[in-house]
Amino acid sequence: xxxxxxxxxxxxxxxxxxxxxxxxxxxxxxxxxxxxxxxxxxxxxxxxxxxxxxxxxxxxxxxxxxxxxxxxxxxxxxxxxxxxxxxxxxxxxxxxxxxxxxxxxxxxxxxxxxxxxxxxxxxxxxxxxxxxxxxxxxxxxxxxxxxxxxxxxxxxxxxxxxxxxxxxxxxxxxxxx
Length: 177
Prior knowledge:
Helix content is about 70%, strand content about 0%. It is an all-alpha fold. α4 packs antiparallel against α5.
């Protein structure tokens, strides 16, 4: 019985993979590069790698520029990410395509914008905690993130649920540090 169920799940998963339309290569539009954060979204565990790949940019912004630049980057990553997600959704016909990671870039930028001790200088412990907490909240989607993720279709929903995961992470960071 278990072998039969496993076989059914395997067939179902294979059909889902076939149904998802792959992104074209080379990408015909800059939105695909932005949505996949320069093809990082094609790696296994794309959300985690997308978050990791965003960190060098975000840390460099916090270390070498004014805090206002980080706020601008966060807002722009949301707006441009929304646009890029819409283009990918139009092409694939799939909500939140598995290779889209710009929402993780926005979420991590939002966490960084309100991290405790940012103005006093953050250590690698703060960054590691921010990364781990954001990934946990983004993957587990505690209420109401999961409900909002299911109800909000379109590119706004893709970006918005990562924003909520970021807010949960910010609250947890302020409680921890």
